[in-house]
Design a protein that fits this description.
With about 325 residues, this protein is an alpha/beta fold. The protein is built from twelve helices and nine strands.
Length: about 325
């Protein structure tokens, strides 16, 4: 198969799998383009490819969370269709807050079960009071636009001076060194992870401190997933271009490389989803359905090439199934 549906999985070069491998999945952010990754995760769910760790950021927090609790296929493309339609009418802050209200109960019920995989959700914490005032106030939109322009010049100076990556974990203990994602702070962390300054009107805070979208510092937490000791890291992108850690291309996540002891397998579309009518902030329904389907196809091809990574869907706990 060629073209947009083929998927860009350079799997074969990595050799045959080894029995007993542990799998981590890192899903890159991409706003509405994240529908592709949701398709990949839906195929994985159908084939029984279940990770020990799921790493997510911004828009991938929902699809990765649904995959972690076994609900990716059940939700499917429906969320993305509703989100795209609502974005133009009510704005992205409302879209995200509504999605948290709709899917939060199932995710809070499933993600924190003892048998659930570890779930990581990246954010960008504002590190000083002056930047917090800017990001939380009327100057936020102008700053957000400037930060997007800086992507094209590679200027990361404001980000480096004012933001820090903070990755919350469902396995961390409250008050410990690793920030803990809990049922109590899940909603706040989920919203904070998505808050792009140029388009989100509602400020984001966690425990009274200012946060902004994960993508400024960590749009794909591959390194954090690899650090959990997995032997295989599957990184899912939503663009045909090189997959980077953040908006400013600070670190490339390369297919066939080794990261933190894990061999890296990258899945991404062959062509820009924009050609299908799916861009970061706008998308039409037909394009979303196609992009989701392309992701599903890519996920199944990956599973065919890596049968050693497949397990039984019966590994889901009764509590996770009950989250539906």
């Amino acid at each position: 198969m060629t073209g947009a549906g083929a998927g860009n999985e350079a799997d074969g070069a990595n050799g045959a799998g080894r029995p007993g491998e542990s799998v981590g999945i890192a899903v890159a952010a991409g706003m509405l383009k994240g529908v592709y990754g949701h398709g990949v995760l839906s195929a994985f769910e159908e084939r029984g490819l279940r990770a020990q760790v799921y790493g997510t950021a911004s828009s991938s927090g929902l699809s990765g969370g649904l995959a972690a609790v076994g609900l990716a296929r059940r939700t499917g493309v429906d969320y993305w269709l509703k989100a795209a339609a609502a974005a133009s009418e009510r704005g992205m802050s409302s879209v995200v807050l509504d999605s948290i209200e709709e899917y939060g109960p199932a995710l809070r019920a499933g993600l924190f079960q003892p048998s659930a995989p570890e779930f990581l959700l990246a954010t960008s914490k504002v590190t000083n009071a002056a930047a917090a005032r800017t990001t939380q106030g009327p100057e936020a939109k102008a700053l957000g636009r400037q930060l997007l322009r800086n992507v094209f010049t590679g200027d990361r100076s404001w980000v480096q001076e004012n933001l820090a990556t903070v990755v919350f974990s469902s396995r961390a203990l409250p008050g410990g060194e690793q920030p803990a994602l809990t049922p109590e702070n899940y909603d706040a962390v989920s919203y904070a992870s998505t808050r792009m300054l140029h388009a989100w009107k509602v400020p984001a805070e966690i425990d009274g401190e200012a946060y902004v979208d994960a993508s400024y510092t960590c749009s794909c937490p591959a390194r954090e997933v690899a650090d959990r000791g997995v032997s295989v890291l599957v990184a899912i992108g939503c663009d045909p271009f090189p997959l980077f850690r953040d908006l400013y291309a600070s670190e490339e996540i390369r297919d066939g490389s080794v990261l933190g002891g894990a061999r890296v397998l990258v899945i991404k579309p062959d062509e820009d989803l924009k050609d299908l009518g799916v861009d970061y902030a706008t998308a039409d329904g037909e394009g979303l359905v196609k992009a989701y389907g392309i992701g599903v196809e890519a996920g199944h091809r990956f599973a065919d090439r890596h049968p050693e990574l497949l397990g039984s869907p019966a590994g889901r706990s009764a509590g996770q199934e009950g989250a539906a």
